Amino acid sequence: MKSRALELGFDAVGVAPVEPLEARAHYEAWLEAGRHGEMHWLASEQHRERRADPSRLVAGIRAVVCVALCHPPDRDAARDERLGRIARYAVGEDYHRIMKDKLLELERWIQRELFPGSGSLWYADTGAILERGWAERAGLGWVGKHAGVLSEALGSWFLLGEVLVDHELVPDAPVAERCGTCARCLDGCPTRAIVAPYQVDARRCISYLTIEHKGPIPRELRPLIGDWVFGCDVCQEVCPWNRFAPPAREARLHAASLDGWSLARFLTLDQPAFLELFATSPIRRADRAGFLRNVCVALGNRGELEHIPALDRALSGDRDALVRGHAAWALGRLVEALPANATARIRAREALRLAADADPDPWARDEAAFAASALA
User: Fold this and answer.
1) Dihedral sign, CA of 154, 174, 102, 273?
2) Which one of 82, 99, 244, 287 has the fewest CB atoms closer than 10 angstroms to its CB?
3) Distance in angstroms (rounded) separating the CA atoms of residues 27 and 11
4) Are 73 and 155 in contact (CB under 8 A)?
5) What are phi and psi of 157, to 5 degrees?
6) Are strands 199-200 and 194-196 parallel, antiparallel or unpaired?
7) Rounded to an integer, what distance in angstroms lies between the CA atom of residue 228 and that of residue 225?
8) Distance between CA atoms of 337 and 333, rounded to whole angstroms?
9) What is the pLDDT of residues 12-49, one digit of tens each?
């Protein structure tokens, strides 16, 4: 079974016995503290019951086969300059599609060849299962202080998947944690979302704010997001274990070029064009309004005055109030350092005042008024 998993392209595989996970108590405490933010489905009774008892997913479950698939560990600086920073796992094709193809093939092999008639079932960030807890139990690595899984051989630039099996398999031994006294991930997090070792508050996490969060990004956090437009890799970038991360073998995970596109051009995307451009990309998960909200924040933080026209057009003409409001903030941020008599600052102030009076959405009007008042 392990040989078959590696033949399919996975970079590591391990087996976890089905016993109560220590990770469940940690997960429940995380929910009780409200650190899941607006991801309300995570706290649903059904979701929690399934995470606590995997037999609700596969009757008679006896083992969890855990796999890891490496994604690219390196960044393309020129691409980041054009497009803003996108988490490494999301620069290529949607990993859900890739993992589905590989795990489904492994599941079918188990059902047809290894254990004919098995009721095994695959998962890859697609259901109520404590993925990191099972991966740790299966010996793929340990949960680091940034709450992700770390491996001596792979670092942390990898995706997790599972096949739940209703037959006994020889389990692997867990590995010891090797973070030691290192706290680089805590110190490096721009928004201080890692509130303590192993404890992440999603409400402050850039990945959550740019993907799962659907409303306005809190003003106090916007400057800290930098030019991340989808996800964040900082806690992994500073981790010493990632010095040993291997390259990704799966071609579909490598970055799409998006030739001809830029941060400013993203603001021209209407809904059909957004869906077409990101048809096979994880970026679709942010939705058009959420993604362009992120683009506005990135442009505001970049401080490049040539982007004033793009933000001005978004401020006055975008269909989504979420985009218009963040364009207002970004426009004000771009020109706030200019002299009070600078033409660009005066024009931006007037555009913001007009939006503060005329925008049909009260929240967008408030954002425009706030930005204009800072330029008075």
Assistant:
1) negative
2) 244
3) 27
4) yes
5) -85, 65
6) antiparallel
7) 6
8) 8
9) 999 999 999 999 999 999 999 999 999 999 999 999 99
Tokens of 159: 């995706």
For the chain, the three-class secondary structure string (H helix, E strand, C coil) is: CHHHHHHCCCCEEEEEECCCCCHHHHHHHHHHCCCCCCCHHHHCHHHHHHHHCHHHCCCCCCEEEEEEEECCCCCCHHHHHHHCEECHHHCCCCHHHHHHHHHHHHHHHHHHHHCCCCCCEEECCCCCCCHHHHHHHCCCCEECCCCCEEECCCECCEEEEEEEECCCCCCCCCCCCCCCCCCHHHHHCCCCCEEECCEECHHHCHHHHHHHCCCCCCCCCHHHHCCEEECCCHHHHCCHHHHHCCCCCCHHHCCCCCCCCCHHHHCCCCHHHHHHHCCCCHHHHHHHHHHHHHHHHHHHHHCCHHHHHHHHHHHHHCCCHHHHHHHHHHHHHHHCCCCCCCHHHHHHHHHHHHHHHHCCCHHHHHHHHHHHHHCC
User: Is 90 exceeded by the pLDDT of residue 149?
Assistant: yes
Q: In b/e form, how buried is each residue of 157-169, taking b as 16+ CB within 10 angstroms?
A: bbbbbbbbbbeeb
pLDDT digits (tens, 9 = 90+) for 280-315: 999 999 999 999 999 999 999 999 999 999 999 999
Rounded CA separation 167/176 (Å)? 27
Residue that the structure tokens 């390259």 belong to: 247
Q: Give buried/exposed letters for 175-196 (b at 16+ CB in 10 A, else e).
A: beeebeebebbbeebbbebbee
Q: What single-letter amino acid sits at 369?
A: A
Q: How many CB atoms lie within 10 A of CB 203?
A: 17
Question: Cα(179)–Cα(46) distance, rounded to whole angstroms?
Answer: 34
Specify whether the CB–CB gap between 63 and 14 falls below 8 A.
no
Catalytic residues, by residue number, are: 125
Nearest to 292 by CA among 266, 310, 316: 266
Place of tokens 């990101």: 278
The rounded distance, in Å, linking the Cα atoms of 175 and 169 is 18
Is this model's pTM higher than 0.90 or not? yes
